[in-house]
Automatic annotation (TrEMBL):
Pfam families from the UniProt entry: Peripla_BP_4
Domain Periplasmic binding protein as annotated: residue spans: 81-338
Listed GO CC annotations: cell envelope
Protein name: Sugar ABC transporter substrate-binding protein
Species whose genome carries this gene: Streptomyces inhibens
Compartments where located: Cell envelope
Highest taxon listed in the record's lineage: Bacteria
InterPro entries per UniProt: Peripla_BP_I, SBP_2_dom
Keywords, ordered alphabetically: Signal
Statement: the UniProt record of this protein carries the keyword Signal: yes
An annotated Gene Ontology molecular function: carbohydrate binding
Similarity comment: family membership: Belongs to the bacterial solute-binding protein 2 family.
Amino acid sequence: MHPNRQAAVSSAVVLALAAGVLVGCERGASTGAGPSSAGPTKAGCPTVLARDKAAVQRAEKTNFTWNGPTTGPRAASGKKIVYVAQTMTNPGVAGAAKGVKEAAQAIGWNVRVIDGQGTPAGIQAAFSQAIALRPSGIVIGGFDPHLTSQQVAKANAEHIPLIGWHAVDSPGPSKDPKLFSNITTKVQDVAKISADWIITHSHGNAGVVVFTDASIPFARNKSELIKKELATCPSVKLLAEENIPISDTSSRTPQEVSSLLSRFRDRWTHSVAINDVYFADAAPALRAARKKGGAAPYNIGAGDGDPSAFQRINSRQFQTATVPEPLAQQGWQIIDEFNRAFSGRPASGYIAPVHIATAANSHGVTSWDPPGYRAAYRKFWGR
């Protein structure tokens, strides 16, 4: 799913089970022997494996109907929205912005996107510029609002509704910072299902590397939750956690992946990243090491499910699965939440369920776009 991507190095994280069978060290410290393949060897967690397999099967389903809002206020007229983006190079941020613009066109509003360029100073300047435009509402697109506390306070004082996209940990309204709503899937659900997929795919025998950005509270929390869920299966080994800011993935990921391959070799069977972009940048190093695109390490992105991630999955090129955000749907939801705010209504409270996309169920598409929401929103907007 997020927030400010400035470089920061997280402190060492050590997870240990009582039996001492799982240890994970920040920046890739080895945990010793791990599995040599993801084959169906005997798992050390049969109960967990059975539970996780059922959860993964539910998340992989694509045949369901729209379960979001079907009623709401009629469309307000003449509104102007500013989308302040953490960085438009983040595919999730850009995808949500695209959905906002599409929905704004449908409802008859104007949208302007201001790119924060991925730096604290840039995001603060973009937010200040947004306020100066005196918009009807402002979207906090993928960064921690505490980074822009002065601008948030000013917008609140001027009664400009703020809606976040992956701005804070939890979906829905927020009191501190004051947001009318925050649009995201539940980070707990995304983290859990991505770890469950690894446990299921490896039959409970995986050597895992976690890629995260510790400079983003949302992302850091997600990776901690992933590790916690992986730890429910004692035969899954956390080999390393790599802290690479999203803004630095293109420059740092290839080198880090080469180092991981050298150190862990075939013990590295699976990876999970807080954003799919890590695997775009890992691919050259994996290819250079003569790894096959459809073989280990099997990679799953715990967000955001951008088009390039689907392309890698569908072509079996160094990514096997993703837990995609329904980016277009979330953009439409942002516009609907603003319409509720302008009408004096409460937030809808809708939270999209988690989904796992693989080559087997994506059918060649390049996004997760659940059916039904466009018609539902247009109907009660009167558009």
